[in-house]
Amino acid sequence: MAARIAKSFKLRFVSKPKTPSPPSIPQSPTTAHGGSGGSGHFPAMQTPKTTAKEDETRQVFSYFDNDNDGRISVDELMAYFTSIGESITHDEAQKIVQEFDKNGDNLLEFEEFVGLMENDDNILRKAFEVFEVEKGSGCITAEGLRQVFRRLGNAKSYQECEAMIRVFDLDGNGVLDFYEFHKMMAN
Q1: What is the CATH number of domain 120-187?
Q2: Under CATH, what is the fold of the domain 47-119?
Q3: 47-119 and 120-187: same fold?
Q4: Long-range contacts: 29-35, Cβ < 8 Å, 24+?
Q5: Domain boundaries, the chain
Q6: Backbone angles phi, psi at 180, to 5 degrees
């Protein structure tokens, strides 16, 4: 459900080696990532992407966390959806929180929110629909982006939104289809 917003990410914060090493053999940074030579720089190359994704997810988290207490309540979840012109019932919001709340406090901490964001491609489809100005058109325009950002309190100019689309507009038609939107959100 949270992915109805601009940033419903499929996140991987830490990439793990594909084959675990035996516990008795400590690994050097070079062998931990599969070889020698230039691969010793691999972890440094991964860090900016991981940090950027985490920063983006934290920004999305902050859209929900109205009181800035580091947790999202059922009421904050409902308030967010109301702010973007969608609505969910208290029971629906409660179910979402309960599904991802690992510690039973009826709140979503950041790590639990990440689990929610990683949940399902169907969620990404719903996020795509939020950005469609003409519902059912199958595309996101610069105007659609501008309107959603404005509702989120993050006003962007039409030109800024055009530039954002241009980065992920693989077929050059000036709009984002679902595939291009998926690529944008995965970045």
Answers
A1: 1.10.238.10
A2: Recoverin; domain 1 (1.10.238)
A3: yes
A4: none
A5: 47-119, 120-187
A6: -65, -40
Rounded-to-integer distance, Cα 183 and Cα 12, Å: 14
Residue 186: C-alpha distances to residues 9, 12, 24, 45, 51 (Å)? 6, 9, 36, 18, 14
In SS3 terms, 143-186 reads as HHHHHHHHHCCCCCCHHHHHHHHHHHCCCCCCCECHHHHHHHHH
Which pLDDT belongs to residue 169? 93
SS3 138: coil
The whole-angstrom separation of Cα 98 and Cα 84 is 23
Question: What does the pLDDT look like over 4-41, one tens digit per residue?
Answer: 333 332 322 222 222 333 333 334 344 444 444 444 44
DSSP H stretches of helix in 65-89:
74-83
Residue count of the chain, please give it.
Answer: 187
Query: Which of the given ranges, 70-74, 79-83, 88-92, 142-146, has the highest pLDDT on average?
Result: 70-74
Asked whether the beta carbons of 51 and 64 are under 8 A apart, the reply is no
Backbone dihedral region for residue 173 (phi beyond 0: left; psi -120 to 50: alpha; all else: beta): alpha
Joined tokens for residue 13: 């914060």
Question: What sign for the dihedral angle of Cα 123, 127, 128, 129?
Answer: positive
pTM: 0.44
